[in-house]
Design a protein that fits this description.
The complex is a heterodimer of chains A (334) and B (279). With 334 residues, chain A is an all-alpha fold. Chain A folds into 2 domains: 70 residues, no CATH class; 242 residues, MetI-like (MetI-like fold), CATH 1.10.3720.10. Chain A is built from 14 helices and 2 strands, in the order H-H-E-E-H-H-H-H-H-H-H-H-H-H-H-H. In chain A, strand 1 and strand 2 form a beta hairpin. In chain A, helix 13 runs antiparallel to helix 14. Chain B has 2 domains: 52 residues; 210 residues, Orthogonal Bundle (MetI-like fold). In chain B, 75% of the residues lie in helices and 0% in strands. Chain B has 14 helices and no strands.
């Protein structure tokens, strides 16, 4: 459009009765300049709008991640904060040979499985309950979300008290039932269960709302035709609702994998020993906690960075696997 | 209403199950107020107390004596507000560009944004710590805020919202009227984006307010609310944790978010459900 304007003979658009040609030339130049500015405006603005995100993310997200890889290849002087020799994969060899790191990986996966599986099952159930024509709809939806506004820090302190080995209410309930009290802060798998419990407590309602949104997007006539075919409520749930919300299910599983494999607050604050390294014998130390302890407290930058990259690759690998499975499933159903 | 629609009217079972779930959700909070309102000895008695006691104010005073509670709360408030404002501002701009403007590389760049949502950036605490130390920012609120000034989630969320919220004709009309791109953004995009901006603000505020790991790395003397709780949990350590003190502090630290939830919980619910349908 602007090229056409520039190519227009000067006189064509001019009023022949114009008193001063100079004025018009000036006008035209201004018009051209404005047009040119507007073209640059049109072309550059999008980049201008997105650049703050990319610049800031590059600085505090991407660059540190790459820098972690660099750090992991060097020896680091712990007391003078100086880079030492290039050691290649030595830090990786150390970390992968460190029984504490391996233990932390096992703990991470154990806690993750104990939290994600029941979480998805309960969240879908709650969503199905909410997907009714309830009285006080907003009240129920908000109530379900209540634990989400409690900080993980607060949640773990509350649960630490509930699951206290000596005076906890859970143990005294067990004892009143004639059962043995559980050493929640000592026994490895029980501690994982307690930690998974607080994670579930905080996130189940949140995920239920996501599932609810997906369920409400299911066309109602699908239920009607299922009902005509004689399917009851439960049957409708399994043969209509579940297949229809599968993409959302996979979305929730992927996001909870990424978050669940980085659990930090819970294992750190569940520990009531002063070291706070995930239990006196690292029974519930997660890999993120390992990275923190090695990197920030003990200042083994190289080892912590190597551990971070190992965990990073595991998480990305699982995300890609999830993605591949999704693609496979959706293509098959299509 | 069709007959099958009417048949979806729930009975007692549905209400009963939901009530049980909600009770389970509220129970831990109730517990923190029960223990937080008893003396240390009462809290550590066997069997434990099951109804609130009368010592909450004593415990609250002990919380204020052992931590910089108010200062920590102010710090949390400042950092959360700054990050939420920044995320909303930059995300709205970027989300608008991705949703409504045509430019070379836009789909590839958007793909990058989506990918970064899956990148566990908090694993990079060691270099972030080193960077903050090198720039002399350790133990400042700026260090806490810096990594959360933009989020990929924010850009994605705003883009998804704005794709449908603004008709293309409206933007064209503004352009024909001679609006610059930025004026178009201000007069067309921002008003349309307002509900999503409020939701994103709420989310980011809560996200930063409840974060524990990064402040723990970046701060030493300065405290946020979560770090104050962290210190509180340490003071009782020895033989038995002083849960009366710890849970009184936990309750006090939770009240601001509970108020925020009471005021804006429906927006939070709407935001979660909206993000889900389109995500």
């Amino acid at each position: 459009m602007s090229t056409r304007l520039e190519g227009t003979p000067a006189g064509a658009a001019e009023d022949p009765a114009a008193p001063a040609g100079g004025h018009h030339r000036h006008n035209r130049a201004r018009l051209v300049r404005r047009e040119r500015l507007s073209r640059w405006d049109l072309r550059l603005s999008p980049y201008l709008y997105i650049s703050p995100f990319f610049i800031l993310f590059g600085l505090v997200g991407l660059y540190p991640l790459i820098y972690t890889g660099y750090l992991s290849l060097y020896d680091w002087d712990r007391f003078y904060y100086q880079r030492g020799e290039f050691v290649g994969l030595e830090n990786y060899r150390f970390v992968l040979g460190d029984p504490v790191f391996i233990k932390s990986l096992v703990n991470t996966f154990s806690i993750f499985l104990m939290s994600s599986v029941p979480q998805v099952v309960i969240a879908v159930t709650v969503a199905a309950l909410l997907d009714n024509r309830l009285r006080g709809r907003t009240f129920w939806r908000m109530s379900v979300l209540l634990p989400f506004v409690v900080a993980p820090t607060a949640a773990v302190l509350i649960f630490g008290s509930l699951f206290a080995d000596q005076y906890g209410v859970v143990n005294s309930a067990l004892e009143s039932l004639g059962l043995e009290p559980v050493r929640w802060h000592v026994d490895r798998w029980w501690s994982h269960l307690a930690i998974a419990g607080m994670v579930n407590w905080r996130w189940t309602g949140y995920n239920a709302l996501i599932f609810l949104a997906a369920m409400q997007a299911v066309p109602r006539d699908l239920y009607e035709s299922a009902a005509l075919d004689g399917a009851g409520r439960v049957r409708q749930f399994f043969s209509v609702t579940l297949p229809m919300i599968r993409p959302t299910m996979i979305f929730v599983i992927v996001t909870s994998t990424i978050g669940g494999l980085q659990i930090f607050t819970e294992p750190r604050l569940f520990d009531d020993t002063p070291q706070r390294e995930g239990g006196p014998d690292h029974q519930y130390m997660t890999s993120t906690l390992y990275i923190y302890v090695k990197g920030i407290e003990d200042q083994f930058y190289g080892r912590a960075s190597a551990a971070a990259w190992v965990l990073f690759l595991i998480i990305v690998g699982i995300a890609l696997l999830n993605f591949a499975i999704t693609r496979f499933l959706t293509r098959r159903s299509a | 209403m069709s007959s099958s629609e009417a048949s979806r009217r729930p009975g007692f079972v549905v209400y009963g199950l939901l009530a049980a779930f909600v009770a389970g959700s509220a129970l831990p909070l109730y517990w923190s107020f029960v223990i937080g309102s008893h003396t240390k000895d009462e809290a550590n008695s066997k069997p434990p107390p099951l109804v609130p006691g009368g010592h909450f104010l004593d415990n609250a005073r002990r919380v204020l004596d052992t931590t910089e509670f108010w200062g920590a709360m102010l710090n949390s408030f400042l950092v959360s507000t700054a990050c939420a404002a920044s995320v909303v501002f930059f995300s709205t701009m970027a989300g608008y560009a991705f949703a409504k403007l045509k430019f070379r590389g836009s789909s590839a760049l958007m793909g990058f944004v989506v990918m970064t949502m899956a990148v566990p950036t908090q694993l990079a605490i060691v270099p972030l710590f080193i960077l903050m130390r090198d720039y002399g920012l350790l133990d400042t609120l700026a260090a806490v805020a810096l990594p959360s000034l933009v989020t990929a989630f924010g850009v994605f969320f705003m883009r998804q919202y704005l794709v449908d919220a603004i008709p293309d004709e409206l933007i064209e009309a503004a352009r024909v009227d001679g609006c610059t791109m930025f004026r178009t953004f201000l007069t067309v995009a921002v008003p349309a984006a307002r509900p999503a901006m409020a939701m994103l603000f709420l989310f980011t505020f809560m996200f930063v307010w409840t974060d524990y790991m990064w402040p723990l790395v970046a701060l030493q003397e300065t405290q946020t609310l979560q770090l104050a709780l962290d210190r509180l949990a340490l003071t009782g350590q020895g033989q038995t944790t002083d849960y009366a003190l710890v849970l009184a502090g936990t309750g006090m630290a939770t009240v601001p978010l509970l108020i925020l939830f009471a005021l804006s919980g429906r927006h939070l619910v709407a935001g979660i459900m909206q993000g889900a349908v389109k995500g």
